[in-house]
Structures are given as structure tokens and as C-alpha cells.
Amino acid sequence: MASSKLSIYAALAANLLIAITKFIAGAISNSAAMIAEGVHSVVDTVNELLLLLGLHRSKKQPDAMHPFGYGKELYFWSFIVSIMIFGLGGGVSIYQGITHIIHPEKMGDPTINYIVLSLSIVFEGTSLFIALKQFNQVRGATPWWEAVVKSKDPSSFLVLFEDAAAVAGLFIVIICVYLSHKLNLPYLDGVASLLVGIILIIVSSILARESRSLLMGEGVSTQTREKICHMVEGDDHVVKVQHILSTYQSPSEVLLMLIVAFKDDLDTEEINIAIDRIRDKVKAEFKLVRFVIIQPESLDHHLLWNDDSH
């Protein structure tokens, strides 16, 4: 979480520094691409604030209404961020681009655009470097895309994707601004805005997919399920683990429910002791598992249920 906050603060500072200057440059040079970039920076700034809000609210202590805590607040606000990138960032940029392609306007002096874009690349590039460094520390030896898919902390890769899209957009804009003046083709300014919008929509779709999966109750991996099953079935009093249900409450908290068939000759006290023992072993081995609910169920009942389901 601390590493996520560092990349968020870096991105927030970068976007705040350049958002206003982009709008000023766009107004002076009459550039739709610069206005689109300004909107992009404003959206990114708001996004970072929403991520910080999500991180803050996810730390709230459990209460009567939310006995498992508020960890999913982070997933909710991450999903909102992905929608904002799509609607405000991508949508406005595409609208600006199409408008200026159909009705290209007379171009102003591009000098200020080059200055602002160059500074923006420096600031956004620095933010991207910090976000990439932090993400690499988290993923370790895991392949890059696999780490994104497996990550349960959307704040760790949201900023990374945002910054990458921002840097790509800046290079597109600076190339199109140059070509539009060099070739006297003012509609290229609109093309740049359109391309930036498309990039943002692609990025937002990826982020929305990952955030939605976590918000809807994504569970632990198949490998982890198998390890838990093997550990529990290794207990002398257990016959079989019949079901494993899990969901991430936050990047650092998992709710786990085990439906377990115990040996028939055990009395209630022995089953309760076994449940406490299994719970302690699971929580000791899997540090992210904070809540463990174990429900005893006879093996015959499980087989009967399976037969009925067919």
C-alpha cells in the first residue's frame, strides 16, 4: 500500500503541475489536441484524488453494518476511476478530435505547445518511472501482464497505466502538432486528439475489467485453493474438504469459507477443537486470510447434494 501511495502522489504532483499550463497553451495556440491533453491531465488529477480517497476509506475499521470492514472501497473507487478515464478522458478527447477534423481551425503559434509538451513529457515520464519502479518491486519475477491480472491492488497498476497512456498521448500530440504546422494541415490537430481518446478508452477498458473482477468478489487462485485443501485434509480429523469459497475484501484481506466433512465418530467438542486448530493453521500459513469460516457437513450430505444437482 505504501508503494502504491508513493506512485499516486508522484502522478498527482505531475498532473497538477501541467494541467493548467496545457489549457493556457491550448487557448493561446488554438489547439484541440492541447485542450484534449489538458482534459486528460485534469481527469488524471481527479483520479489520483479518488484513489487516495479509496485507500483512506478502505482502512476504516469494521462496524455493525460492515463486519468484514471497508476494504472493497478501494475496488469501488478504482472502478469509478476507470469509468472516468473512459467518459471524461476518452469521450471528451474523441469529441474534440472529431469536431476539429470536420471543422479545422486556424492554427496559432505552436512554440508554447512545444514548451508545455516537452515539460509534460518530463513530468509524466518521471511519474511513469516511479510507478513502474514501484510495480516492479511488487511483481518481483512474475511476468508483467500476469502480475497485472493477478494483482489484487488496483491502485498499483492504475497509476502505471494512466502514466503510460499519458506519455504515449503526449508523443502523439507533439508529432501531430509539428506535422500540422509543417504540412499546413490543421485537421491533424484533431487527429491527435482523436488518437489520444482512443488510447484512453482502450486503457480504461482494461482497468475497468480488472477492477470489476475484484469488486464482484474475486477469490484466491487455483494454486492457493489446492494448497489450502491439501493442508486441511492433512488434519487427522478431516475426511474431505467439500467446498472452498473465498473473496478478497481488500488487497491484504481474504474471507475464506471451508465446508468440511469430519470423521463420523467425532463428538461436537472434538469437532470444535478441530475447527479452531484448522483455522489457526490456515491463518498462520496464509497471511492474507484474515477471516476463516468453517462449516462441518457430512460426506453423505455432500454426495446427496451432488446427485440431486445432476
TrEMBL record:
Membrane topology: Multi-pass membrane protein
GO biological process, one term: zinc ion transport
UniProt keyword terms in alphabetical order: Membrane, Transmembrane, Transmembrane helix, Transport
A single GO molecular function term of this UniProt record: monoatomic cation transmembrane transporter activity
Locations listed in the record: Membrane
SUPFAM superfamilies membership: Cation efflux protein cytoplasmic domain-like, Cation efflux protein transmembrane domain-like
One Pfam family this sequence matches: Cation_efflux
Protein name (database record): Cation diffusion facilitator family transporter
Organism: Mucilaginibacter terrenus
The organism's taxonomic lineage, starting at the top: Bacteria, Pseudomonadati, Bacteroidota, Sphingobacteriia, Sphingobacteriales
